User: Fold this.
Amino acid sequence: MRSFFRPESVAVVGATANPIKGGYHIYNNLKTYFSGRVYPVNPNYDEIGGHTCYRSVSDLPEVVELVILFIPAKHVPSVMAECAGLGIKRIQIQAAGFVEVGTEGEELARQVLAIAGEHDIRVWGPNCTGSVSSRDIFFAPFMPAPDLNEKLTPGPVSVIAQSGMLAGGFLVQMLEGGYFGIDKVAAIGNKMDIDEVDILKFLADEDDTRVILMYLESIARGREFMEVARELSGKKHLVLLKAGRSEQSKAAALSHTGSLAGNEQVIDGALAQAGVIRVSDFMEMIHVGQALATSPVSAGGRRVAVITVTGGGGIVSTDLLSDFGLEVPDLTPETVKTLQEIFPPWMPPKNPVDLWPTMELRGINEAFELVVPVVLKDPNIDAAILLPFASPLVETQKVDIFTRAMKETGKPIISWVFGYPDRFEMFEDTMKAAGIPVFRQLSQAAKVLAAFRTLGGM
Amino acid sequence: MRSFFRPESVAVVGATANPIKGGYHIYNNLKTYFSGRVYPVNPNYDEIGGHTCYRSVSDLPEVVELVILFIPAKHVPSVMAECAGLGIKRIQIQAAGFVEVGTEGEELARQVLAIAGEHDIRVWGPNCTGSVSSRDIFFAPFMPAPDLNEKLTPGPVSVIAQSGMLAGGFLVQMLEGGYFGIDKVAAIGNKMDIDEVDILKFLADEDDTRVILMYLESIARGREFMEVARELSGKKHLVLLKAGRSEQSKAAALSHTGSLAGNEQVIDGALAQAGVIRVSDFMEMIHVGQALATSPVSAGGRRVAVITVTGGGGIVSTDLLSDFGLEVPDLTPETVKTLQEIFPPWMPPKNPVDLWPTMELRGINEAFELVVPVVLKDPNIDAAILLPFASPLVETQKVDIFTRAMKETGKPIISWVFGYPDRFEMFEDTMKAAGIPVFRQLSQAAKVLAAFRTLGGM
Assistant:
């Protein structure tokens, strides 16, 4: 599997000098950023961008470790056979036109698999944007990718995605949005041979990956998937957007990547047992990934403290946390006693901790600064969610107090934001710099606390 | 009820000249913006801001239509009695300190209700930020509200909120965020007397209100609430964030506004039958309100067309629409035939409509411009969701084609956005100007289509 992310040498069959074609970008991206040997193959060119272009894989100066094919589906079997004859063992097919287009494509797929089986070749794709690694910038997708050395920041998140265009667009959004640092991206398309289980097994030993975001339209080998997920749980965060849950969407999935979706209820229960966090859309997947990637703490737990300027927000948070199997437990008598020194006598402190009374005495910032460390230390508490009010006052919030509390206790803090929308960005930047992920939707915040919990062991 | 939103005259008991106190803001907001007669009452001042301040309500030059009380709870019964003696019939208590703080407060509440009952007085609050109307800018909340004449834009959305601080903060966010135009806001707090049913009945005849957003921690008169909701369905959109769903949050709600929450399952079914859209957090409530307020079309239906640049996005959309009881039906043979002239022959068009093949021929913008009007006209379709890719190309999208299609068919279009995050705002602005609400989360988009459906009658 390593050959798909950091090969010694790679050939791009279908490389062209025409920048509106995908074959141009695959070659150009690899040639520009990757330090390994990259060869263009296309009988119509003698050179591309000043580099020798080869008529066929047989003409290459070496037996390359990986061949990427971006040619019409009907030509794939003959090139595959040529590769097989040369002893090439790893092929990535980015082009479409196989099982998703009907009988003719199915026959082509059968031919490809027959050659692969006979010659012990592993096939990635087809109908996909391929593999990406931020280490040494190996970027195979057939799309323009300027300034990758700035945009592809190495980090703890790896992504597995089944859909071609979506994986590509999603990758653009991740690169341009700078939500989190990326280790690897695997867009596996029709997964004729290599599937999510292969990628997961590979990522299990990649220490740079701490969070794995998955978009899957089907889970091909259910039992093996659950096994590898269970092995990874407690070590890496697994986040899954599983499409094709409804009967209607299952039909759509069949025509899109040619895969059949499984029985949802069975999948659902097994995933929960294996510690996989399910999300319902792409932005939620990004939010969860971002929170897990940026927090200085990676493990949470079931028992959450809600620290809020609004009683109503506290109630809605409790509902949403409860939806995700989390609790808002009582604080210990010791914590209550310490808080009583901060709170006015007429308001007995309890969880959710409503700061309103003490805010009137001390102001909103001091209220949070005094209360958060006390509550986070409580042995009944595994994590905290803050519900502050974004206003011009935010500028003077001493967020280092929160960071220290997280580091001392090993418990994560996340935050909701409401109030003055023109202060949201400043608030978000300030809190994120302190290691506190911020959400404008409470439901997203609750989901993220549930995701933290998967490494908490409770 | 009119007296709480546009009284001829109003007295503010507890008005002060001290701008860090709530009583200052209530008086100042009313005096600054409202054209009716506004009187400050406080025995400690002879004048406030150059206006005569009265020692008591008995000293006022007239029997005012409305009295707003912002004084400690223990003084409320005696002022109430004084008002009753004068024949005043409408009182709004913004201060806290009643049932939510225990036995002593409960006794005060009993005294207030006894006086109200005896003298036929309607009481609003306590523990609330009171009433707001954009017509003639009647703004009672005890918070600073600069530039209201610019920020409180009249529009079709009215808000009913139970929690004090939250309603206040939420109001700030709505005013500052400019998400939608506002007709009325009713922050009803502990709802000792006036409750959501009273407000709903009043709003039923307020033609300026087309969308009602509700945040409730309890539904005090369940049967009457359902009756008025059923009467309103088909005429106005009702959107509800019901807090206190979980057992834990019910306990929190009790201490917060002193109200008991009901049986969730019973409430749930009845609300769905009455056409009430439930949302799970505040931002979702804003999103839904904004979409309903800004679309040129107010009614949708169950049958949704998904028009997408990504097959994967089409599948996830189908899942989410299905979660909300919506369908992604087949297109009519006539529509398919028309689309076949636009699509390449190897890709038979169907719903979800995957534009990928025709995009390769025509570019993304033309693909949408050709396909959207054809699909929206389909008699099998009630509404459409677009899944485009935000890129620099967006600048040249001819969105007037979409607006015309909506107006001709009376069917709404909404849009998801993914792609280049630095293009999201431009994309959102462009689409919103054309009457198409845009969402970054697919789940929000699906929820909004479900909300449109409630006025669609199918």
Q: What stands out?
A: The CA atoms of residues 244 and 429 of chain A lie 36 Å apart. Chain A has a mean pLDDT of 90. DSSP finds 17 helices and 21 strands in chain A.
